[in-house]
């Protein structure tokens, strides 16, 4: 009786709600699952799922603001189920949702928008990584990379080169190409959904619905420790970080740039972890409490769908069995989205 009730709840839920639940599950748990399965570049696949989910939501409704609404629900569920997620992850989800809302303002341009969104979501991952690296170590990091590589190549290459630019260009190009591939896959999946999905896939799903085992999606919880001296350390570290940008500070380390790079990184990490992160988490917590009060029903619906999302993802991983891990993950995403978007049991 409970099993039938669960199936009914899932199949009767609007496709936008089911897909929002998939997006929320992927943001809260799927990254850890893929890392546990040793899938390389798991972040790329999470970005692709986000783009897919937003495309399906945009194709299922003509209401403006639906993607922002879905994004806020995803952020709320992410905070509820995985509160210790690094703060940049929340920012990434919000930016993806905002860009998705802007791109899909004109529903007549669904395919080009879907393709561009996929490219953006996957390329943004590269931008975020490079930005964090530059903030931590500053421009001196890239200068140090150039000096190091020029020392290696001086014996067989004439002149000096800015290798850091080449590295950044190659890095971005790889993610950009991945975005193009993701955009093509996005369009193919959307086309399949419009045609009614894959009948053979639904037949297999119905025959093998009861599946034992599953992913361990238990969110780790660590107790919060509040100590006043951390605030003092945070303030002092913040002051040191500000001073580190002043000319006389940099001049003091002109002969030892490595010391400057390391000290800068340590100071920024202290400021971020002991001072800024607690303050930002408090702000997110206040927002979440207010949002939860206003959208309690929607959040409950999303959370109620998560166990079934988990079952479908578990089955999809088995259905997508392949010796090549990249192909398997690609098939896994396709099968999961098709089953969740077209599940009318």
Can you tag this structure with a few keywords?
345 residues, 14 helices
| Distance from first to last alpha carbon | 15 Å
Biggest β-sheet strands, sense, barrel: none
How much strand? under 5%
Q: Spans with pLDDT under 50 lasting ≥5 residues?
A: 210-226, 248-256
Written overview of the protein:
With about 350 residues, the protein is mainly alpha-helical. It has one domain (about 1-215, about 295-340). It is built from 14 helices and no strands. The protein has helices spanning about 1-10, 15-35, 40-60, 65-80, 85-105, 110-135, 140-155, 165-195, 200-205, 230-245, 245-250, 255-295, 295-320, 325-340. The two termini are about 15 Å apart.
SSE layout and pairing:
Layout: H1 2-12, H2 15-36, H3 42-60, H4 66-81, H5 87-103, H6 110-137, H7 139-153, H8 163-194, H9 199-207, H10 228-244, H11 247-252, H12 257-294, H13 296-319, H14 325-341
Helix pairs in contact: 2-3, 2-4, 2-13, 3-5, 3-6, 3-8, 3-14, 4-5, 5-6, 6-7, 6-8, 8-14, 10-12, 13-14
Task: Describe the structure concisely.
The chain has 345 residues and is mainly α.
